[in-house]
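Revision sheet: C-alpha cells.
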Amino acid sequence: MATIEVDPISRIEGHLGVKVTTDVTGKITEADAHGNLWRGFENFLIGRRANDAITFTQRICGVCPVPHGTASTFAADSVLGVSKGYATFKWNGVVGTEGVPEAGLHVRNMILASEFLMSSITHFYHLVAQDYVQGPPIPPWIPYFRNADYASQLLLPAERVVPLKNVEGDPNFGTYPGLSKKLWDAVITQYVKALRIRRLTFEAGAMFAGRMPMVSALVAGGTTNTFESAQELREKLDVFRALMTEVGDFVVKEYIPLALALGALYPKDDNKNNTALGGNGAGLGNFLAWGGFPQADVGETMAVKGGWVIDAAGAAVKGVLLESKAGGVGGVGGLDDAIAKVQANITESIARSHYTASYGYTDKATAEYPGDITMTEPDRTSGYSWMKAPRWDGYAMEVGPFARMVVNGKYPATNTNVVTDGYADIYVKAGALDAAVLSPDLVSGLAGDGLVGTVAGYIAGMKGGLSTLDRIRARALESYWMVTYLIGAPSKDPETSAISWPDATSGAGWAGALRTMAASTVPKFYRDTTAPVGEVHGFGLVEAPRGALGHFVTATGGKIKSYQCVVPTTWNGSPKNGTAATSALYEAKKHLNDGPNRGAIEQATIDVVYNDTPMNGSDPHTIAGAQSGVEVMRVAHSFDPCIACAVH
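Predicted:
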C-alpha cells in the first residue's frame, strides 16, 4: 500500500494535483484531486456594471474565454431586462418582450462553436497526444514516460524512415517528400497540421468576434457587429464558410479517425465492451449538461440539449433540462421549467474545501442563487482543495463533451455501436470502415505498421462505454457536430467516397441562415437594454468545451452586487463533499461512486493500476528515480481540466 502525489498535472490550465492511495497490487483505492491556487476572481466584479463582467470574466482562462464571455452575456441579459435567465433566445421585435435579434443569436453561436473546435483540436493534439505518442526528443515531448507505457507503433522510431526536406529554398521545405511510412510519422504530421487548423478556427471566429480568443462582440442585448452593406456581410460569411470547410475536412478525415484508432492501440484505457482489459477512467456514470446554442428555428430549439443521466451504464435515470424555449407538454424541457429545476437542484459543498463554514452555496433557505453568497476569508487549514463541490440534487456529476454526447443521444454509454446514425453514412461502406474517407497520409502510416485491417475492424465494431478513451473520442465526434451546426452536414459520394460540404448559397448551418437574412439588407444585431429598478437575480448557463458553465449574478440598477461562476472543472475536479456520517443524503446518491461522493476525476482514477516503480534512466530523456504518473495523467487529461477556471 502506498500514497503517491501526482503533482503537478502538466499540460492543463492551472495547478492541479491528484493524491492516490494504492493497494499491494498497485490498484488505486482512493484519490484526492486538489486545486492548488485560490484566485478570488469573482470578488473584483462587485460594484461594476453587468456588461463589464463580459470583458472581465473572459480573463478567467486563456483557453476558454469565449464560453465565459457567453455565460456572462446571458447573465447580463437576465439582469438588464433581455431574458428570464439561463439562456437567451430570439427576439420577436416587440418592445417589452424578451430575446435578442436573430442575427445576434447566430453570431453568438458561431463565435462559441468556433471556440469549441479550437479547444477540442488543441486538447487532443497538443495536450493529450503526449500521453500516448513518444515524440521527438525535444520539448514539449520530453521527459518521456517508460517505453512500455507507449504502444510500440507510437514509439519514436530508431531512425526516421522518411526525412524532412531541410534545404531552405526547396518548395517543399519542412515537409515530407511523400506520404508517411509509419503510423508515428502520420501522427506527428497531424500534430503539426493541427496547429494550422486551430489557427483557422480563430481566424473564422474573429471575423465576427472582433478578435479571438478574448472577444469584443458580446454585449447584453445581442452583439456589436456592424456592416456597411449586405454584400460585405455575405462576403465575410463566404470566407467564414471556406475556413470552416477546411476545418471540417480535418475533423472528418484526420482527427476523428485517429481518436477512434487509439482504442486499438491502448486497450486497457478503453471500455470493457471492447476488451477484457479495459475500463480505466470509467468515472461516475452520472452526466449533466446545461445545453447550449439557442437556435432561431421554428421551435426555438437548443442545438445541444440540456439534461442529465444518472448511472448511465446501469438502469439509467434520465432528466430533461432545456430542449427548446417552450418545451414539451406542460412546458417540460422549456425555459421556465429549466430555470425552476436549476434553482431547486444545484448546490455547492465545502466539506472538503479550504473555506470557512459560512462560504458555499448550500442553504436554499437563505440563498436563491450561488451569487448571493458573500465571500469570507479562506481557511487554508481545513479540507484538501481550493475547489468547491457542486452537486445536482445531491449527485456528483461529470460534465463535458462526453456528458453532452450521452445526454443528447449522440454517443452510447453502454455496449452499443459507436459508428452509427450520423457517423455511419460517412465512415461505413458495405458494412466496414470506409478507409477512402480517411486522409491518405493516415492510411499510409497505418499500412506501414500493418494496422489498416486491425484498426478498421476495431472502429467498425467499436462499442460505447465508460472509460478514458470513450471520453476522448466522444469529444472528437462532437467536433463533427460543431462543424455541421456552423455550415451544415457533409455528404459523401457513393462511388469515390469524396466528402463535400454545403456551398455558400445553400442556407445550411448558422452561417447559411445569417447569409439568407443578408440577401438584401444588413440585419439588426443588437437591441437596447434597460436595467430594472431594484435588486434582480439572474444567471446564464452555457456549454463550454470542458462542460456545463454557469454565471450567477445579483445586481441592483444594473450594478453587480454579487457574482459567482460554477465552472466545468469545479464539477469534474471537485473534492468529496461528505462522509457517511455527515452527508447521508449525498451518500445515498452516489451510485457508481463507492466512496464519500467523490468528484468525477477522483472516481475515474479508482481501480486504475499505478506503476510506482522508479524509472531507471536508461533512456536519457527520462528522469532517473522518478515515477511517470502516466496512468493518473491519462485519466485527468481526458477531462481537459482547467484549474484557472475552477477556483475563485
